[in-house]
Amino acid sequence: MSAASSATPGSPQASSDPRPQAGRPDAALDPQVAQLLDLIARAKRPPINALDPLDAKIAYEKSAPILDIAPLPVHHVQDLSVPARDGHAIGARLYAPREASWADPLPLLLYFHGGGFTVGSPASHDPLCRLLSMRADCMVLSVDYRLGPQWRFPTAVHDAFDVLAWAYAEAGALGADPARIALGGDSAGGTLATACAVEARRLGHAPVLQMLIYPGTCARQDTPSHRALAEGYLLTAEMIQWFFAQYLDQDSSRDDWRFAPLDGGGSGADVAGCCPAWIAVAGYDPLHDEGVAYAAKLRAAGVPAELAEYPGMIHDFFKLGRFVPAVGQAHDDAVAALRGAFGAA
Question: Is the per-residue pLDDT at 298 higher than 60?
């Protein structure tokens, strides 16, 4: 999932409250985040889930740049087309921080944007991808996978898998090093990245990292953080279910591990042998607990998983850096994780 800046009217609960129930953080809400939520509440714009899906897509694209950092200049940006299994041309945007060659290939981050499988695009996540490319000194391939409600589950997963296979096959032609490919995504894009980590293992590939930014991983959205933070923090319970109503082909697909890698079908994805993970979670995010649980699932399977907690933050905070200075630390941490995985720390 991911929420537009106009997404949720409603004042946040008092940031100084101790955890009154399971699922609520002990830490105070970041003061700039609290101010932002207050501004959104005062604007009284309709939540994204009150819009027609097409209007929601437009609204998200318009609102995405407002609170995000200014886009960094990069050496090269190229729009590409990747063939899908059904003949569809999947759009992708390739960022390069410097010239690459066969003698000096660059690491590559395969990135999947958030947006509840319904909104979002490489354009909405352009500043983040530019930052990761320049500061981690890697190529970033940002994937324009197909969205609901026109394209329902498992189309987005198939698109992600097809781009994954293509990236490994074409790495040399792109100037990328196939031995240094990472997978990444935020929210719904984090779900796709988890699935790609499992698919990569099946294909015999060895990504160096899965960078999961507040990923969606559970089947029923019934964790303590989902219950305690259902209203008032940008991403609401009603919005989450609206997103999934646009995306899922049928309710039983919630039990498919490609939708719910944590617990789909009871045991979720078989993650043994998958690549290491760096997982960022926000304290005031309904998705907090499932990110924590997914890190535990990976560790239980013997997969190294670093959990980065940002207690005063909300969902989608990686894209609020223009308004919330503390987001800069999370960006630093993500860059450090990538550089470490690429052997460039």
Answer: yes
**Those residues with Cβ within 8 angstroms of residue 87's Cβ, 6 or more apart along the chain or in another chain:** none
Domains identified in the chain, total number: 1
CATH, residue 272: 3.40.50.1820
How many CB atoms are located within 10 Å of the residue 160 CB?
26
Q: What tokens appear for 82 in the block? A: 């990747």
Q: Identify the CA nearest to 32 among candidates 333, 322, 329.
A: 322
- Give, to the nearest 10 degrees, the angle between helix 188-203 and helix 155-174: 60
Beta-bridge partner residues of 141: 94, 110
Distance of alpha carbon 316 from alpha carbon 213, whole angstroms: 9
22 in a domain, yes or no? no
Cβ neighbourhood burial of 112 (10 Å; 0-12, 13-18, 19+)? buried
Task: Please choose, from the candidates 205, 203, 183, 202, the residue with its C-alpha nearest in 3D space to the C-alpha of residue 194.
Answer: 183
35-56 pLDDT tens trace:
999 999 999 899 999 999 999 9
The residues carrying an active-site annotation are: 187, 285, 315
pLDDT per residue as tens digits for the range 86-108: 999 999 999 999 998 888 899 99
Spatial strand order in the sheet of 139-144: 76-83, 89-96, 139-144, 106-112, 176-186, 209-213, 277-284, 305-314
Residue ranges making up the domain that contains 208? 31-342
pLDDT digits (tens, 9 = 90+) for 264-279: 999 999 999 999 999 9
Pairwise CA distance, residues 5 & 320, whole Å: 9
- Report the alpha-carbon distance of residue 83 to residue 260 in Å, rounded: 26
Q: What DSSP assignment string belongs to 42-109? A: HHTPPPGGGS-HHHHHHHHHHHHHHHSPPPPP-SEEEEEEEE-TTS-EEEEEEEESS---SSSPEEEE
CB-CB contact of 289 with 25 (8 Å): no
Question: Considering the domain boundaries, does residue 6 fall inside one?
Answer: no
* CA angle (295, 265, 182) in 5-degree steps: 40
Residue 2 falls inside a structural domain: no
> pLDDT of 142-184, one tens digit each?
999 999 999 999 999 999 999 999 999 999 999 999 999 999 9
Q: Is residue 14 part of a domain?
A: no
